[in-house]
Amino acid sequence: MSSSSSPDGATPLEENRPLLDGFRRGDRDALQTVAKSYIQDVARTIRTGVVVVVDGQRVRLGQNLPEFEVEGLVQETFLRAFQPDARDRYDGVRPFGAWLATIARNLLIDRGRKESVRRKQTFATDDVEWAPSDEESAQDTVEARELHRLLQEFRSSLDEDGQTLFRIRYEEGISIRDAARRLNASEVSIRRRDGRMRHALFLFLKQNGYLEHATVHIGQSLL
């Protein structure tokens, strides 16, 4: 299992709180640093492609793409990840490399769907699913279960208001803006509460060893 580190050996975004704060604000320097740190792994993930199941058959999408298409998909991955709503949705706990990989994988699947339409092939949404290798699947299942257990344990330690905010932000994936509307509170107060809760969750996961063992090498594993 790979260690929790960014591709260039620097501290990964989920552990670099000053950089994470800058990323959330959309600071130009922070976004450039993030892109530089993860761009090679995103490119490697796209070049590797993604295996999907179409009509019961395993098909790898994205292999042997022209380099200009790889570059375009890499740029689109970061454009989507750097959108204000996307920056707000990132919880600062899940490995950022895996979060980027999910975006890149979805772009490859979207590209495959468009290509299938052009070729008049069947590529219905219900027929397609991501199919990791057996080793990746078993490893990710263990990690997902452990993360779920820890999240539930952390949630149960919160007061009623904290549990409500946790559910809205981390289970429903609601943005700060929408959470404020839902809770009839200001965005500033929700952002502060969310920041404190996120920091407490980060420390809780780190104390329980999760961040030390989570797979984050997105070229090989899509958590």
Describe, in plain words, how this protein is organized in 3D.
A hairpin with a 2-residue loop joins strand 1 and strand 2 (57-61). This protein is mainly alpha-helical. A two-stranded antiparallel sheet has the order 1-2. The radius of gyration is 18 Å and the shape is globular. Helices cover 64% and strands 4% of the residues. The termini are close together.
Q: Work out the oligomeric state of the chains in this entry.
A: single chain
**Which structural class do the helices and strands define?**
mainly alpha
Return the average pLDDT rounded to an integer: 75
Distance between the termini: 12 Å
SSE topology sketch:
Elements: H1 17-25, H2 28-48, E1 50-54, E2 57-61, H3 67-81, H4 84-89, H5 96-118, H6 134-156, H7 160-171, H8 176-183, H9 187-207, H10 210-213
Helix pairs in contact: 1-2, 2-3, 2-5, 3-5, 7-9, 8-9
Compact overview of the structure:
The protein is mainly alpha-helical and about 220 residues long. About 65% of the residues lie in helices and about 5% in strands.
